C-alpha cells in the first residue's frame, strides 16, 4: 500500500499544480500543532518568493482547489500562508481496512531496490563470558537486521568473533604450564588430535583472566605468550587444534547466551577466518604503491583534503610483521566481498571506535578492496551507564556478566508478576522471562543508539511509562478484549472499520495510518529508537481510546465489530513492531 503521507502529499501537490504553481511546493508533514490540524503544508511561504505573491493568497487558492477532495474533511488556509489539513473519516477507515487485510505487512511496502547487506555486530571475544558491554551491539544489530529483512533486503548477520591475537597465546601458555603433557605441545606429534577439548567452558573462562593478570607482572610469561601467538598465527598444528577446541567450547556457550537475548547470527566467523587473505592483500597494497614502511611498520595514508582533524595512517603490519585489528578487519572485507559481494556492510560498534573505522573504511576504498558503489556504514553506539552516570557495574564494582543481568531482571519481573497471584508458577516464570526481555531491549533501543543512557532496572521494569512492559501490557489488554468478544460467539465476518466517532478513536486511527512510514524511516536512518517512539505513541493512543470507549458494552453491533477490527489492527501492528525489535508478548500478565 502507498504510505498515507504520500497519498496526502500527492493530492496537495496536484492542488498546487492546478493553481499554476510548481507541485514541489505541496510537501506535507505531520502537524506540529495537533490541536489545530492533523497534517500541514507550508509550501505557500516558499512559493511566495518565486511567484511574487503574498503567501496567504497562494494558500487560499490551493485550499479552494482542494475543497471537496475525498481525502480531506477540511483544508484551511491560515495566515501568513499555512495549509491546515484534516483527514476524511471515510478515507481513513478505508485505508486502515486495507492495512488489516495484509496481516503480514500491514500495508508496508518493501524497498524498491533490494540490497544485499552484511551486518557486523556482537563482536565477543572467545574464552571470555559476555558482559553488559556486549549488550548494545547485540540488541541494536539484531533490530537493524530484522528491520532490513522486513523492508525486503537480503541481510546477513555476522558475529565477528575476537579469536585471534595475544589472548589466544595467553590461553595456550597457561594451559601448557598446567598440563605440559598434552599432545598439542609436542612438536613431533603426527597423529590425530583428541576430539574432546582439554577444558570446560568454566575452566576456559578462568584460564584467560589468570593468564592475562600474570602477563602484566611476569615479562618472561608475556614473552612466551607472544611467541605462542606468533606460532599459532604461522600455522603450528597443535596450537591450531587448541584454537579449534577454544572456538567450539566458547561458541556453544555464546550461542546459549545470545539465544537468551533472542539474538541470532547467520555467520559465526572470526578474525582467524580472515587470516588466509592477509598475505595476498598486503602484497597487493605494496605492489600498487599504497603501503609503505614508516618507523618500521607497514602503513597506508588515509588522510583526505578537507579533513578538519588529523587522520593518522592506517597501520597494516607492525614492525615485527605481526597483524593488527586493522589487518584482520581489512582482510575480513576482502573475504566478504569475495564470498558475498554485498552492496553494504554495516558495523554496529562502540562510537568511540569511529576514528578507527574511518581509517579502515578509507584504506579499503583507497586500496580497491571494495567497489565504489559498496557502502561501508559505521553505526556507533553510546555507553550503558548505571545510575551514577558511570559504566554499568556490579554492586561490588566489577563488570557484570550478561547472564547475571538477565537473571536479575527476570527475578524482578517474576516478583512483580507473582504479586498478582493470577497464574501458576511455571506460567509466571515463562511470562517473567518474556517481559524481562522486553524491559531490557526496549530500555536500550528506546534511546538513540549514539547516545549514552542510564540503565535503570526499576524504571525499565515498570508497567507504566515509556517501557517495554507497558507496551506488552497494552497488547495483553487487547488480547483479553478480543478473547472476551470471541467467547460471546460473535464474529467480525463482513464487518468494516467505521469512520471515527470520537476524537480518541480518530487519534488511534491516525497513529495506525503512520505505521509504514515510521518503519521505513527507522530503517533508512538505522534508528530502532524511532520504532520505539512510534510504538509508545500508538500504545498511548490505544489506551486513551480504551478508557474513553466502552467496547464490550457497545450496543450497536456494527460499531462494536468495527471497534474489534480496530483492536485487531492495533494489536497486529504493535506485535509486528516488537518482532522487529526482537521480543514478543505473552498472553497474560
Describe this structure in words.
The protein is α/β, with parallel strands linked by helices and 589 residues long. Among the domains are: 4-87, Gyrase A, domain 2, CATH 3.30.1360; 166-260, no CATH class; 434-581, Isoleucyl-tRNA Synthetase, Domain 1. Helices cover 51% and strands 10% of the residues. It is built from 21 helices and 13 strands. The chain has helices at residues 4-18, 43-51, 55-65, 89-100, 135-150, 166-178, 201-215, 219-233, 237-260, 271-274, 278-287, 325-339, 354-366, 402-418, 425-445, 457-460, 468-487, 503-513, 515-524, 528-548, 557-581, and strands at residues 29-30, 39-41, 72-78, 82-87, 116-120, 154-158, 291-294, 297-300, 314-317, 344-350, 375-381, 384-385, 453-454. It has a four-stranded antiparallel β-sheet. The chain has a four-stranded parallel β-sheet with strand order 6-5-10-11, with helices on both faces. β3 and β4 (82-87) form a beta hairpin. α17 (468-487) crosses α20 (528-548) and α19 packs antiparallel against α20. The chain is globular.
Brief overview:
With 589 residues, the protein is of the alpha/beta class. Helix content is 51%, strand content 10%. The strands form 4 sheets. A 4-stranded antiparallel β-sheet has the order 1-2-4-3. The protein has a 4-stranded parallel β-sheet with strand order 6-5-10-11, with helices on both faces.
Task: Write out key terms for the chains shown.
single chain, 589 residues, alpha/beta, Gyrase A, domain 2, Isoleucyl-tRNA Synthetase, Domain 1, 4-stranded antiparallel sheet, 4-stranded parallel sheet, 13 strands
Amino acid at each position: 500500500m502507498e504510505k498515507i503521507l504520500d497519498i496526502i502529499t500527492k493530492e496537495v501537490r496536484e492542488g498546487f499544480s492546478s493553481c499554476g504553481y510548481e507541485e514541489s511546493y505541496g510537501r506535507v508533514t505531520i502537524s506540529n500543532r495537533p490541536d489545530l490540524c492533523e497534517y500541514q503544508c507550508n509550501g505557500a511561504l516558499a512559493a511566495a518568493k518565486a511567484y511574487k505573491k503574498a503567501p496567504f493568497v497562494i494558500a487560499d487558492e490551493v485550499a479552494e482547489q482542494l475543497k471537496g477532495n475525498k481525502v480531506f474533511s477540511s483544508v484551511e488556509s491560515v495566515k501568513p500562508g499555512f495549509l491546515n489539513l484534516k483527514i476524511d473519516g471515510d478515507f481513513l477507515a478505508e485505508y486502515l481496512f486495507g492495512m488489516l487485510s495484509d496481516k503480514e505487512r500491514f500495508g508496508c511496502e518493501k524497498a524498491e531496490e533490494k540490497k544485499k547487506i552484511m551486518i557486523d555486530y556482537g563482536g565477543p571475544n572467545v574464552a571470555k563470558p559476555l558482559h553488559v558491554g556486549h549488550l548494545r551491539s547485540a540488541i541494536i544489530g539484531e533490530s537493524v537486521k530484522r528491520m532490513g529483512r522486513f523492508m525486503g533486503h537480503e541481510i546477513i548477520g555476522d558475529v565477528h568473533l575476537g579469536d585471534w591475537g595475544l589472548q589466544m597465546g595467553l590461553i595456550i601458555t597457561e594451559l601448557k604450564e598446567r598440563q605440559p603433557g598434552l599432545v598439542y605441545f609436542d612438536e613431533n606429534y603426527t597423529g590425530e588430535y583428541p576430539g574432546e577439548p582439554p577444558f570446560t567452558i568454566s575452566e576456559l573462562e578462568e584460564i584467560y583472566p589468570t593468564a592475562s593478570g600474570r602477563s602484566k607482572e611476569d615479562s618472561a610469561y608475556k614473552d612466551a605468550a607472544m611467541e605462542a601467538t606468533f606460532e599459532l598465527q604461522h600455522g603450528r598444528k597443535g596450537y591450531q587444534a587448541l584454537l579449534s577446541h577454544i572456538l567450539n567450547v566458547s561458541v556453544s556457550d555464546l550461542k546459549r547466551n545470545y539465544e537468551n537475548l533472542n539474538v541470532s547470527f547467520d555467520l559465526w566467523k572470526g578474525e582467524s577466518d580472515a587470516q588466509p587473505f592477509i598475505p595476498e592483500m598486503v602484497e597487493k597494497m605494496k605492489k600498487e604503491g599504497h603501503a609503505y614502511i614508516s618507523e618500521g611498520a607497514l602503513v597506508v595514508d588515509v588522510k583526505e583534503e578537507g579533513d578538519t582533524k588529523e587522520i593518522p595512517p592506517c597501520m597494516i603490519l607492525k614492525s615485527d610483521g605481526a597483524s593488527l585489528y586493522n589487518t584482520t578487519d581489512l582482510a575480513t572485507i576482502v573475504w566478504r566481498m569475495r564470498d558475498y559481494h554485498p552492496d553494504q556492510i554495516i558495523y554496529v560498534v562502540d562510537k568511540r571506535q569511529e576514528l578507527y573505522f574511518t581509517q579502515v573504511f578509507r584504506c579499503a576504498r583507497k586500496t580497491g578492496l571494495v567497489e565504489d558503489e559498496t557502502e561501508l556504514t559505521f553505526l556507533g553506539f553510546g555507553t550503558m551507564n548505571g545510575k551514577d552516570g558511570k559504566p554499568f557495574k556490579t554492586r561490588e564494582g566489577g563488570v557484570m556478566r550478561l547472564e547475571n543481568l538477565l537473571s536479575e531482571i527476570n527475578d524482578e519481573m517474576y516478583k512483580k508478576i507473582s504479586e498478582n497471584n493470577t497464574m501458576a508458577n511455571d506460567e509466571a516464570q515463562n511470562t517473567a522471562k518474556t517481559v524481562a526481555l522486553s524491559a531490557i531491549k526496549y530500555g536500550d533501543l528506546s534511546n538513540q543508539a549514539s547516545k549514552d543512557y542510564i540503565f535503570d532496572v526499576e524504571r525499565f521494569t515498570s508497567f507504566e511509562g515509556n517501557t517495554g512492559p507497558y507496551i506488552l501490557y497494552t497488547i495483553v489488554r487487547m488480547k483479553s478484549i478480543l478473547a472476551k468478544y470471541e467467547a460471546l460467539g460473535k464474529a467480525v465476518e463482513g464487518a468494516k472499520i467505521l469512520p471515527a466517532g470520537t476524537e480518541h478513536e480518530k487519534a488511534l486511527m491516525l497513529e495506525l495510518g503512520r505505521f509504514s512510514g515510521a518503519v521505513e524511516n527507522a530503517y533508512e536512518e538505522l534508528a530502532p529508537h524511532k520504532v520505539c517512539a512510534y510504538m509508545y505513541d500508538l500504545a498511548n493512543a490505544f489506551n486513551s481510546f480504551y478508557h474513553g470507549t466502552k467496547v464490550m458494552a457497545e450496543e450497536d453491533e456494527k460499531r462494536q465489530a468495527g471497534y474489534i477490527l480496530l483492536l485487531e489492527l492495533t494489536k497486529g501492528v504493535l506485535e509486528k513492531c516488537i518482532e522487529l525489535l526482537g521480543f514478543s508478548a505473552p498472553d497474560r500478565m
